[in-house]
Design goal:
Elements (H helix, E strand, L loop, with lengths): L6 E3 L2 E3 L5 E2 L2 E2 L4 E2 L4 E2 L3 H18 L4 H17 L2 H11 L3 H24 L6 E3 L8 E3 L7 E4 L13 H9 L3 E4 L5 H18 L6 E4 L4 H9 L5 E6 L1 H12 L7 E5 L4 E4 L1 H20 L11 E4 L3 H16 L8 H15 L5 E4 L15 E3 L6
Parallel strand pairs: 9-10, 9-12, 10-11, 12-13, 14-15
Antiparallel strand pairs: 1-2, 3-6, 4-5, 7-8, 16-17
Length: about 375
């Protein structure tokens, strides 16, 4: 399927802007052939306005229609076949095995929400009948309105265009405007095709979904500030998530931001565990740290231990295992630059000792060596 580099605004292609960017193959640092356009304020306005108009209809859709739509999106994503997997691999370097599993997770999420709709308790309906001293009170959850979803870099399917945030909004009957991640724009466009096909097949309003591309902060900020937007879903870094939250809170009418952001994921390992299972714990720790080249939100980043002879042996073992693991391919230049900066700032402190890594390496793709730094509690 040809990739256009255009936005999809209520199923209509658009490319009004003059600023463009390309995807980059992280294994080779080679730019892609397609120019993707940054969304203009006018395009963003049309996308959100179309979503608000669509919501007038979809807010009253019966559960059966939403179920059919969610299952149609899952089907259309699977129908993209290897083209989707190969495109995502080229843009992220995550590998076909990982991406095949993630695609299954993504379509599984969509079908899980469909099943939740069939079950019905998601509306949390409560009926308190009137008594002599209390009026009749009835409550249930209603869809909130147009939602902006910011796609993640490290999950091009499951936390992206048709990921969990999008699926949950669709399930509630809320139209979605996705701000695609610039790290995998072609993958995002293919997924948008699948969603648009489901919209046509199910007879939904075209404004129920729009895809906006962009590699500038301004695109996202303009989207969040639109007065017809009612909520934001975000997966990514603490810095970006905080900026999105601050923008949403500063609006004349603040809106909720549902954000899953990064963490250093501290791990505490006690002396008894080290003495009893040193090899097993070291192997598990290093495997978890290096999983996905350290680009999962669950990768441990800080290990707290109590100094002892066994602990020092454990540290040496973990260091050796980290050195023996090949460094993985990083998603993009931004991740590589971030690691270089973070490690450089940390190692400037005299109390921080480098055990392994902490130096740039020559590689064909984006890469950073597996790194272990150590310090003591009195200096932390």
């Amino acid at each position: 399927m040809p990739i256009s580099g255009h936005h999809f605004i209520a199923s209509t292609r658009s490319a009004e802007g003059h600023q463009t960017f390309t995807s980059v193959n992280p294994r080779t640092k080679t730019p892609g052939n397609v120019q993707f356009f940054n969304a203009t304020p006018s395009e963003i306005d049309r996308a959100v306005t179309a979503a608000a108009e669509a919501f007038k209809t979809t807010r009253n859709f019966p559960t059966s229609l939403l179920v059919r739509f969610l299952e149609a999106v899952a089907y259309e994503i699977e129908a993209l076949g290897d083209e989707l997997l190969n495109t995502a691999d080229m843009e992220t370097g995550l590998g076909s095995t990982r991406l095949t599993g993630e695609r299954a997770r993504t379509t599984g999420q969509l079908r899980a929400f469909a099943n939740l709709l069939r079950e019905g308790s998601y509306v949390e309906a409560i009926i308190d009948t009137a008594t002599a001293d209390r009026p009749d009170i009835r409550r249930m959850l209603f869809p909130i309105g147009p939602v902006a979803v910011f796609a993640a870099s490290n999950f091009p399917f499951a936390f992206s265009v048709a990921g969990g945030d999008t699926a949950s909004a669709f399930a509630a009957g809320c139209p979605v405007i996705v701000k695609a991640h610039p790290g995998h724009p072609a993958t995002s466009e293919l997924t948008a095709h699948a969603i648009n096909r489901a919209i046509v097949a199910c007879g939904f309003p075209a404004g129920f979904f729009s895809l906006l591309q962009g590699d500038t902060v301004e695109v996202g900020q303009t989207l969040i500030q639109h007065p017809l937007l009612e909520a934001v879903g975000f997966t990514g870094s603490l810095r970006a998530g905080r900026a999105i939250f601050d923008t949403a809170a500063a609006r004349p009418k603040p809106i909720p931001v549902y954000a899953e952001m990064g963490s250093i994921n501290p791990v505490v390992i006690l002396p008894g565990a080290i003495a009893a299972r040193m090899e097993t714990i070291a192997e598990g720790l290093v495997t978890s740290v290096t999983l996905g080249a350290g680009q999962f939100c669950t990768n441990p980043g800080l290990v707290l231990v109590i100094d002892s002879t066994e602990t020092r042996q454990f540290i040496e073992l973990a260091e050796s295992k980290m050195e023996s693991r090949a460094s993985g391919v990083l998603l993009n230049a931004s991740v590589e630059r971030g690691l270089v900066k973070a490690v450089a700032e940390t190692t400037r402190h005299a109390a921080v000792q480098t055990l392994t890594g902490a130096a740039t390496i020559q590689a064909e793709g984006f890469c950073y060596p597996n790194t272990v730094l150590i310090t003591h509690s009195q200096d932390f």
